[in-house]
Amino acid sequence: MNKITIRGVGKTFRVRGEGRPFAALSGIDLDVRAGEFLTLVGPSGCGKSTLLDLIAGLTAPTSGTLHLDGRPINGPGLDRGVVFQQYALFPWRTALGNIEFGLEAKAVPGKERAERARHFLELVGLGGFADRYPHELSGGMRQRVAIARSLAFDPEVLLMDEPFAALDAQTRESLQEELLSIWEKTGKTIVFITHGIDEAVYLGQRVAIMTSRPGRIKQIIDVAFDSRAGDLRAEPRFGEYRHHIWTLLRDEVAAARRDEVLSVG
Amino acid sequence: MADNQGTALAPVEEFPGDVHWYDLPDDDADPEEADEPSDTRFRRILRKTRSLLGRSAAVALLLAIWEILPRTGIVDRVFLPPLSEVVGAGYDLIVSGELGEHVGASLGRSLAGFVLAIVTVIPLGLLIGWYQPVADFLTPLLELFRNTSAVALLPVFTLILGLGETAKITFVLYACAWPILLNTISGVKTVDPLLIKSARSMGLGPLRLFQKVILPAAVPTIFTGIRLAGAYSILVLLFAEMVGAKAGLGYLINAAQFNFRIPDMYAGILTISLLGLLFNQLLVTLERRFSTWRTT
Ligand SMILES: Nc1ncnc2c1ncn2[C@@H]1O[C@H](COP(=O)(O)OP(=O)(O)O)[C@@H](O)[C@H]1O
Ligand SMILES: [Mg+2]
User: Fold this and answer.
1) Where on the phi/psi map is residue B149: left (φ > 0), alpha (ψ -120 to 50), or beta?
2) Handedness of CA A65, A68, A70, A75 (dihedral sign)
3) Do the Cβ atoms of A62 and A31 come closer than 8 Å?
4) Which of A59, A222, B85, B186 to pair with B171, CA 20 to 30 A apart?
5) Cα end-to-end distance, chain B, whole Å
6) Which residues make Cβ contacts (< 8 Å) with residue A229, sequence separation at least 6?
7) Helix (H, G, I), strand (E, B) or coil at B68
8) Is the overall model pTM greater than 0.80, yes or no?
9) CB B221 within 8 A of CB B186
10) Which value does ipTM take for this structure?
11) Tens of pLDDT along A165-205?
12) What are phi and psi of B265, to 5 degrees?
């Protein structure tokens, strides 16, 4: 069963001072299954964030169609939650207040709102930090609050744009584990953008690889392990997946470089 | 949907998110709230007292010089009476009730102009910052007036509105309007686009976006404008009170100089400085309260 259906989606931007439009995406076909964890990798600038914005309904495609549960996506909504790399927490609100933000948007009544926000703060392990402002929290804690905020209004789909890219390795690994455990508990559909191949293999049930700009889906790889116990990253299978994806990406990264050099020169 | 919410809210047996040492906040994230043992508290009070003394040393030195120079005859004490004489004159003015009357008149005008500026200009600034068509329409006009000194316009205000209170208050309002207006506009325009994007992704429409994101994000910047306006409200009023006023500190200073009551003149000047200092301190405290979340 498909949660999100993307057909022939293209997106062009009009760049100031340039005659012809700038194609960021072209001919994207992608199905995201209900309840799956899909990771999306691609060279920098290939249009990953642009694709996520389209699914979030923050922008409209230039061509093609996007459907969520069979209904066309024509704007943002609380059925999808977005987690950004730079956390995007409201600095004038406490951790709890930030989580309540989405609940206010959903018009959840006051008392229930606070209870629910507290529950999700505890879910991400920050029960004791309810009254902290974002600037009083570390990067990892901020991202946890952001994840809790998106979970709290109970979207069916979680859209994550390189959420752990700005964190140090240890914090990143612990958040990856937490995210997997939250995903298993809640059964959300997750679309997770990353530029880390390891992260893509570790988290994704499927890894979608994008071409260089204008981005298309180059290939989708199913990732399955016999067991996730122990150090998954040390498994031979893990290395095979990683190498395979790396080979696929290498050509695209080289193409992206060439494109960059050409457009600068 | 309701079903779905139920599962998400179900109690969680084990929390996946244990806090590890490496995601605890940085030490420098929050230096003031750290609990400290009582002996360091004593040391902190000592340190604060010392820094206060250090900061007031220059002022104390100036006051001492003010006392000594006229007394030793290096400066003519007719034109610069020693500080003690000025303080004495100020004391007499307070006792006779004259000073209170002038301070009352000045404060009334300053506050009236200041408050009117806040009330009228913040909405205008929000409108200009938020609606591009309004900004496009008004910006050339604003640029023109912004570069016209308020003091240059004082004769115009007097000409049109007469010598009474209306002209003086309008003049203060005009001078206060600029810092508030420019800060409000920039406060609205410089809201982090990512916050707007994040709020939009949660389905907020333009009105709620404005109320829940733009406005709170702009508050600290607006407050900076208000603080600047507070200082202006007292500074520029003096000009207005030097023409055709019958009360007020500006009038006192001017009249004292005219009648050669030099100590009274200095007492008036001192009062205005203290008043400005107090008002600014009050606004700085308020500003801090409203922008605790700002880290910069
Ligand atoms: N609003 C925009 N206007 C013009 N160009 C844009 C805009 N957003 C993205 N782009 C361009 O589209 C391309 C894809 O961007 P993006 O989706 O952010 O890439 P990625 O997230 O994969 O690094 C980039 O070359 C970027 O410069
Ligand atoms: Mg991106």
Assistant:
1) beta
2) negative
3) no
4) B186
5) 42
6) none
7) helix
8) yes
9) yes
10) 0.92
11) 999 999 999 999 999 999 999 999 999 999 899 999 999 99
12) -60, -45
Amino acid at B8: A
Residue range A2-79+160-264 forms a domain whose CATH class is alpha beta
What torsion, rounded to 10 degrees, do the Cα atoms A220, A222, A228, A233 define? Answer: -50
CATH 3.40.50.300 residue ranges of chain A are 2-79+160-264
Of the partner residues B17, B26, B200, the one whose CB lies closest to the CB of residue A138: B26
C-alpha distances (whole Å) from B102 to each of B106, B178, B264, B274 are: 6, 27, 12, 14
Q: Which helix (H) or strand (E) holds B282?
A: helix B262-290
C-alpha distance from residue A40 to each of A45, A187, B240 (Å)? 13, 19, 67
CB contact under 8 A, B200 and A58: yes
* Longest CA span, chain B: 91
Give distance in angstroms: CA of A50 to centre of ligand 1.
Answer: 6
User: Average pLDDT for residues A23-46, to the nearest whole number?
Assistant: 94
- Phi and psi dihedrals of A171, rounded to 5? -60, -40
Q: Whose CA is nearest to atom 9 of ligand 1?
A: A50
Of B194, B215, B213, B219, residue with least CA distance to A97: B213
Structure tokens given for B166 = 């209306």
Which residues are paired to A193 by β-bridges?
Answer: A40, A161
* Structure token pair of residue B163: 């010598």
Question: Nearest CA to A116 among A129, A131, A101?
Answer: A101
Domains in chain B, CATH or no CATH each = 81-290 (1.10.3720.10)
List the structure tokens of A258. 């060439």
Alpha carbons A150 and A143: distance in angstroms, whole number? 11
CB A166 within 8 A of CB A158: no
Q: Report which of A203, A168, A237, A257 is spatially closest to residue A38, judged by C-alpha positions.
A: A203
Q: Which of B21, B26, B27, B198 to mutate to test the interface with A (most CBs of A within 10 A)?
A: B198
| Greatest extent of chain A over all pairs of C-alpha atoms, in Å | 59
What span, in angstroms and rounded, lies between the C-alpha atoms of A168 and B171? 56
Neighbours of ion ligand 2 (CB under 5 A): A 49
Report CA B110 to chain centroid distance, whole Å: 13
Ligand in nearest proximity to the CA of A13 = 1
Helices assigned H by DSSP within chain A: 48-56, 95-105, 110-123, 139-152, 169-186, 197-203, 236-264
**Is residue B164 within 8 Å of B106, Cβ to Cβ?**
no
Number of Cβ within a 10 Å radius of residue B175: 25
3-state DSSP assignment of residue B73: coil
pLDDT tens digits, B58-107: 889 999 999 999 999 888 988 999 999 999 999 999 999 999 999 999 99
CA distance A55 to B238: 60
